[in-house]
């Protein structure tokens, strides 16, 4: 038995604390694993769902699957279905899936803001046809583009109440010239959508009350 106080629960039986107080290193992954083991009837594993090595193995396997699917699509289509900010988005989906920043709405709107802010910064600085900063080096227009894109992304995510931290990386991918062509940016958003669908499927399979769009509003005073 743990000496820590029990988490308050709502009418659905879910705790309001988004990090397991007894197993904080695992975030909410312990809840996901517990649900998956129960759904798959792996009774021999249920008692080990919160052990750190088990959580680490789950993170490894899920990370490989998440980005592996995108990599296969990129290989088959010869299109940029994979980009760096998908990694932190995937981690949010399965580490704190009930956090507002991990909801489908905030994920998709956040990345869309990042893409648009990044591309707008390229237009305003005349860099839409320039090579990536990693190849051609930094310049004053590129400095302005990077700063402007990140500032716009942060401000607009707050304005539209859709915070998603990985979108900050997405906008820099665009403003630094790594992905700049409109078809590439459309594929980038398709990849975000596919990863979001995976999050919905896995979290709901595990019995996590993961939202289909808006973040779930929880009232700790409700019965």
Map the helices and strands:
Elements: H1 29-39, H2 43-46, H3 52-77, H4 86-95, H5 104-125, H6 133-136, H7 140-159, H8 167-175, H9 182-205
Summarize the structure.
Helices cover 58% and strands 0% of the residues. It has helices at residues 29-39, 43-46, 52-77, 86-95, 104-125, 133-136, 140-159, 167-175, 182-205. The two termini are 25 Å apart.
What can you tell me about this protein's structure?
With 223 residues, this protein is mainly α. The chain has a domain of 118 residues. It is 58% helix and 0% strand. The protein has 9 helices and no strands. Helix 5 packs antiparallel against helix 7, helix 5 packs antiparallel against helix 9 and helix 7 runs antiparallel to helix 8. The longest helix is centred in the N-terminal third of the chain and has 26 residues. The protein is elongated. The two termini are 25 Å apart. The N terminus is likely disordered.
Summary tags:
single chain; 223 residues; mainly alpha; 9 helices; 58% helix; elongated; disordered N terminus
